[in-house]
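step 3/5: co-fold with flavin-adenine dinucleotide
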Amino acid sequence: MDRLTPVEQRAPGRWQIGTVASIKRETPRVKSFRIELPMWMPHLPGQHYDVRLTAPDGYRAERSYSIASSPLDEGTIELTIDRLADGEVSPYFHDVLVEGDQVEVRGPFASYFVWRGEKPTLLVGGGSGVVPLMAILRHRRRTMPDLAMRLIYSVRTAEDVIYGDELGDDATLTFTREPPERWTGHTGRIDVGLIADAAAAVDTGTAFVCGSNGFVESVTRLLLEAGYEPGRIRTERFGPTG
Ligand SMILES: Cc1cc2nc3c(=O)[nH]c(=O)nc-3n(C[C@H](O)[C@H](O)[C@H](O)COP(=O)(O)OP(=O)(O)OC[C@H]3O[C@@H](n4cnc5c(N)ncnc54)[C@H](O)[C@@H]3O)c2cc1C
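step 4/5: write tokens
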């Protein structure tokens, strides 16, 4: 009997060396990195990868980054990273990595903060918390464009808007510090009115909330106030600060 041909093992837990194919500056503090993966496997929108940096003395730092791209982008993933001035890993991506460099990653991970085609859906993101929500939006635009979905996106100023060129009628922005000139839309923190308007546009359904701890907590409270039961709210927290 013929021997079975061995197949390459594509397991989400294995570290692999990716290659930075392109880097895009999104805002003064945020860049997107498209990374080619030798053991790429399809992810669910909302999932993340772990990134590991190793110093010459063996010191290691590991962080998680959400996937911004649709799983239809075969062979690559896009990570969008906010540069924290006193950070360890994010400044390395911004200041050191160039196209063609290699980076160690493993994933995709997470089974809870994922979009499996639920309809309708409300997405609420603060700052870089928009990253996994953009994966959901991008994938929905390519696979189920007629499905009701709305993004509420809170940013500080006009120059902090990530993916600005991709935000269409399905996105509502609010500027918490300084709106752009002649802005007639929402300003200030997300409030229950903004949630209720967006929720009415998509009817009832699942809400995905992502951002800092403080952002996620206050938006979750507003969603509960607007009538969302806890089981319809999925949250992802990026950092320790509010
Ligand atoms: C599931 C998951 C997905 C994530 N996805 C993304 C993503 O798509 N894009 C992205 O930019 N980040 C994302 N993060 C955050 C990321 O993992 C790192 O925490 C972040 O990049 C900071 O790492 P650092 O090494 O640069 O800073 P560190 O050296 O870890 O921290 C430096 C300082 O910043 C504070 N800090 C740490 N994290 C944050 C934060 N997120 N916000 C504000 N202050 C912070 C620390 O308390 C410390 O004072 C995600 C986190 C999780 C858990």
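step 5/5: annotate
The chain has a mean pLDDT of 93.
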